[in-house]
Structures are given as C-alpha cells and as structure tokens.
Specification:
11-stranded mixed beta sheet, Rossmann fold, alpha/beta, Immunoglobulin-like, globular, 3 domains, 4-stranded antiparallel beta sheet, about 500 residues
Length: about 500
C-alpha cells in the first residue's frame, strides 16, 4: 500500500500529538522498595500517569482500579491491611507497569523537629555522639524496621513530590550511620517493634535550628486565632528562600509525604522558638503554635486526630551562658509549662519530660537519646497501643493552701511518689501574698506533697523546677520524672 507524502505528515503529527499528552507512570518518592505500609488503616496509594488511562494497583490480595484525572493525578485506597513480616510486591499498571518489592506491613511513624530530633547515634559535626554509640550501632540489625529520610530543602509553595531524600532502607548500622538517621526516632521504633512484634517504618523529616512556623501548613495557622496572621504568608521564589519563613519547610519536606498512611507523629523542637532576649519574644505563643502545627498536619493527612507525641526541651544555660539567649533563668521553665499546656490541650498528644536526661548543662544536644526514644515509646505503647504500663511521671493536678503549707495532688502517681535518689526533694519554691519565692521543703505524704518554708506563713503559690538548670529528683514509682509546674500559672 502506498501513502502520499501528506498522509505521512498527518500520521506523524497525530503520533506526535499522542506522545505529547502521554505521561510516564510515576509514584511519589515516599513509595519505594523496602517500605512499610500502615496496618489496620485504609492506605492511600497515588501517583501520576497519562490522563484518562486506567490505573490498576495490586497488593496483598487486593486489586484497586481508577483512572488518571485530566492533570494526570490518580489515587486509590487499599483496604485495611494485616501486619506481615512476609516481603510483598506492590504493582501499579497504567499503560506500563511498576513494581515495588520487599514491602512489609506494620506501624509507620513520622519523626520531625530540629537538631535534637536530627541528631544521629554516631558522629555529627559540632556534637558528641549519643551514649554507647558504637555498641548501639553494632547492635542495630533490625531488617523489619525500615527507615526513610527526607533531606533539607525549601519551597515557596506546597510541592507534590520530594526532591531530596534517602529512600527506604532496612535498618542496620550501615543504614543508620550512612544517612545520619535520627537516634531518638530509631530508639523509639526499636522499642515499638520489639514490644508489638510487628514491622516498623520510620520517616524522618527534620532540620536543626529551625522554628516551628516553617513546618506549619497554612490551614493549621488558620485554625488558631493568634496564628491566623501567618495563614496568608506568601514566599517569593525570586530570591533565596529562608528556612525561617512560615510554611517554607512544610512546602518542601512535609506536603509531599502528606497522606502516606501512618499511625502518628513524633516532634522534638522548641529551642529555636524559646531563644531570644528581645522584649517582644513570642515564645509565650508556643502552645498555640503547636496547636496550629498539629491541627494543620492532621487536616492535610486526612486520618483524623492521629497520635502526636513530643519531647520537652532539656535543661540548658540559655540565660546563664556567656552570651545570654534568654531574658531570665526562668524563661525555659515558662516554656516547659507551655509545652505542658499543649500536651493537655491537643487531643491524643503527650509529652516526654527530660529534666533528668542532661549530663552537661552547656550542651544543647543531650546525649541520652535512647531514654528519649524509650519514653516516647512508653507514650505510644500506653496511649496508642493500649498496653497497661506507666507512660508519664507525676503531673500536677491541684493545690490546697493551708496555714504554713501547701498540699499538692498529682495525676500519674504509678507506684507512688518518690525521691529517686533517696535525698530530700529538690527545686521546690514557695511564696506568700508578696510574691517572693523562696526555697521550700517538700515532703511526700502518701500520694500528695506537703510544701513549706519557715519564711512563708501563709503560702499562695508553689513552683517546681522553675529554673533553666533544674534537674530535680521527684519521680513516680515507675521511674518517670515529674513535669515542671507552677500553681500560679497565668496561662492555664
């Protein structure tokens, strides 16, 4: 059969047009070989393909179909999956086929924050390794724990996919050390894995020295009255984007993974919001800022009020250093109470206390990250997974003021109230109507404390751990430290 020159030209044009609208099948970076998918929840799987093409996703005996939208985007939801150590393959067909292998099903957690979350087990420039780093790394052979790290990058608008990342890896000393994976997240994941006997997936997205606002989506700011001023933030992409700009980190390091099914999130941040010696420092809004962050993340994930567990920032000489980074030695204590407020105010949230985990008050990066991970795991095991364990130290409930003393009651008194080292309780102060606080004696009477000082005849307020260098010895019998508190809390 002979074709005219015109026919050949038209055929070429048609073929060219067809190829111009074809889009290669693509999955977001957070989906990959070796990943863990979340058990017991609907699991979204999404990507991009040629508009209109049929998309078929197959995994663990399930087959889901859809068609790519006009913009090429497609999404299906796998039904609830059962935990499994058996490696499986996820297949996506859309004009071509992609297969992801060695996939497990278990528990998935997101770990985020600044440098104390970012801190790895081993070496980190300007920091000391965590305690027992060599031994911990040598023992870190857990092929059913999988790790994924989002690398630092910024964007002016929410991105659809990650541009910098280290893909899913089986947990080993080489994997942890090779990508400098979060020590706190690893120790948490290891304990969840060994206690629940299920695979665990850990996604780290952290950046040292950052404030909370750059991690927060606009919808989060819009939910909290004091933070609405940030909701309409616009970022110029003409110049270099700053990692201090509200939403800038969220746009590049959280938005692209939003929707990946997970059980909950871990957060270890606050130092950068606390630090500042100007009179208008906004650290007093931190509980609101956390509400904005958590509310925003939960909104964009669409999983409801998933668990959110965070770490109290540790004792450190913010004011007492050669160059002060706080207005007073009490500024950190005020911040601790704001973090406590967030733990009470935010649904399904909890806080790890760290006043006893510092070996050097001049080091803003405490080395005992294994205990941080352990305490985060206690919160998850007790509050999320329903294990009957103590997951928190004593939390102040109420005070009764009598002539010459204050009687304090607490929640979370598992095993009773104790002075851990057998010495008199430390870091309690008491004040009368004049507002002058003096060192106080605190005695354990059953599950209450009686606090008094000879100088104060009629007390009106008690404070505990009310200084940046507080490392008190007040615990419950389960071995967990009490939260710092003040009975005269103006923000409660």
């Amino acid at each position: 059969m002979k074709f005219s020159r015109l026919s050949l030209v038209l055929a070429a044009a048609i073929m060219s047009s067809a190829f111009s609208i074809r889009a290669d099948l693509k999955l977001p970076a957070v989906f990959g070989d070796n990943m863990v998918l979340q058990q017991q929840l609907a699991v979204p799987v999404w990507g991009w393909a040629t508009p209109g093409v049929k998309v078929t996703v197959t995994f663990s005996g399930q087959t889901k179909n859809t068609r790519a939208a006009v913009d090429g985007k497609w999404l299906v939801r796998l039904g609830k999956l059962k935990a499994s150590f058996a490696p499986q393959t996820l297949t996506v067909e859309a004009g071509e086929t992609k297969s992801l292998t060695n996939i497990l099903v278990g528990e998935v957690w997101l770990a985020s924050g600044q440098s104390n979350m970012e801190k790895p087990i081993g070496k980190q420039p300007g920091q000391k390794p965590t305690f027992n780093a060599e031994a911990e790394l040598a023992a870190a052979n857990f092929p059913s724990i999988r790790i994924f790290k989002v690398e630092k990058t910024l964007a002016a608008t929410p991105q659809t996919d990650l541009t910098k990342f280290n893909g899913w890896r089986e947990c080993s000393s080489n994997a942890l050390d090779g990508i400098s994976f979060s020590a706190a997240a690893y120790f948490f994941g290891r304990e969840v894995h060994t206690n629940l006997n299920v695979p665990v997936g850990l996604i780290e997205s952290s950046w040292g020295g950052t404030r909370i606002e750059p991690w927060t989506p606009p919808v989060g700011f819009a939910k909290v009255a004091s933070q609405k001023k940030f909701a309409a933030t616009t970022i110029s992409s003409t110049y270099k984007i700053s990692n201090t700009k509200p939403t800038a980190i969220y746009n590049a390091m959280i938005a692209p993974i939003a929707g990946f099914a997970l059980r909950g999130a871990l957060w270890y941040q606050g130092e950068s919001n606390l630090m500042g010696t100007n009179a208008n420092n906004d650290y007093r809004e931190y509980a609101d800022k956390m509400a904005a962050l958590v509310g925003g993340w939960r909104e964009i994930w669409g999983e409801g009020s998933f668990p959110f567990y965070f770490v109290q920032i540790a004792p450190f000489k913010y004011y007492g250093a050669k160059t002060a980074r706080a207005n007073t030695p009490e500024q950190l204590a005020e911040f601790w109470t704001l973090q406590s407020h967030a733990a009470r105010r935010i649904k399904h949230a909890g806080m790890v206390v760290t006043t006893d985990l510092v070996d050097n008050l001049d080091d803003i990066h405490p080395r005992n990250k294994s205990e941080v991970g352990h305490r985060l795991a206690l919160l998850a095991l007790g509050e999320t997974y329903g294990k009957k364990i103590a997951s928190s130290g004593p939390v102040f409930r109420r005070a009764t003021f009598l002539a010459g003393k204050a009687v304090l009651k607490f929640d979370n008194t598992d095993g009773g109230l104790v002075n851990k080292d057998g010495q008199p309780l430390t870091f309690f102060t008491i004040a009368g109507a004049g507002g002058k606080f003096v060192a106080a004696e605190a005695k354990i009477i059953g599950n209450t404390l009686e606090v008094s000082a000879k100088e104060v005849v009629q007390p009106v307020a008690v404070r505990f751990a009310w200084t940046e260098i507080a490392q008190p010895n007040f615990y419950n019998g389960a071995g967990l430290p009490a939260e710092p508190f003040r009975t005269d809390d103006p923000w409660k």
